[in-house]
Amino acid sequence: MNPPDERRDSIGVPADVRRELRRVAQRLGPIGHSIHWLGTTGSTNDVASRLAEIGAAEGATVVAEAQTAGRGRHGRAWFSPAGAGLYASVILRPSKEACAAGRENPIALLTLAAGVAIADAVRIATGLPAEIKWPNDVMIGRRKLAGILAESAGHASAAPFIVLGFGVNLQEAAYPVELAARATSIEAETNRPADRAQIFAEILACVAERYAALRAEKFDANLSDWRRLAPSLRSALIEWDSPAGVVRGRAEDIDGGGALLVRVGDRIERLIAGEIRWI
Does residue 278 carry a pLDDT above 90? Predict the structure, then answer.
């Protein structure tokens, strides 16, 4: 039998990461019991999906030093250069009842819970005042530090699953022109080297805790903490494209299903998905 502080069936995990995972082992539950640490891959979400389809257990995690086809919401490319970030995906297999409990969008709830987890982990590991921007960004001020992409899959040959992917900017990089003014990194914000191992272990531990709360149907705790970490949400001016044209309103809150509530004139619009622009 493996000792309780060791991750099982892990491949290529650096020694410093193993050490930090042992430190948080009692908080991890099933998360990270198996870790596949890769040099370069196309997308950790894609690798995790393939593993899940052939039966990988809940909590199996894929990490890459670099991605050549990393992506964010709506298929956007996620800039993933070697050594500059932390790119990881976790396989989750929540039951429909445990995760949704009557809410129509478990992906939204998992994305919100993951945002809280990553923001909390960054605060714990670095002291930075990380905040959240709906639906899937972790911010320092007005600059993006991390992003989240949750994707559901599964077919007749495999049980349904969700892959929870996240990318965190650790070091300054030569960002593409379209990202340079909107992105930041832990090293840029702290003026000291980022401890990748500590940050990764803390993120996994916080994700495990937030996921456990979802499985226990403790939705209110996750939602209230999300609101705490998103102080700039209320009254923020946003716009989005609708079949009738561009709509503009002010964000007011999120609801129990993770949807964004926006005041447009004298009515409240409920946004579940789609692209919004923060003005």
Answer: no
Task: Give kind and range of the element (H or E) at residue 132.
Answer: strand 131-133
Contact predicate 259/270, CB 8 Å:
yes
Average per-residue pLDDT for the chain: 86
What domains appear along the chain, each with residue ranges and CATH number? Answer: 15-228 (3.30.930.10), 237-278 (2.30.30.100)
pTM of the model: 0.88
Where b means 16+ CB within 10 Å and e means fewer, 127-159 reads ebebbbbbbbbbbbeebbbbbbbbbebeeeeee
3-class SS at 128? Answer: coil
Q: Which residue has the tokens 């990988």?
A: 56
Condensed to tens digits (0 to 9), the pLDDT of residues 235-250 reads 899 999 988 899 999 9
The count of other CB atoms within 10 Å of the CB of residue 209 is 18
Give the SS3 label for residue 193: coil
Supply the pLDDT for residue 96. 58
Bridge partners (DSSP) listed for residue 63: 37, 88
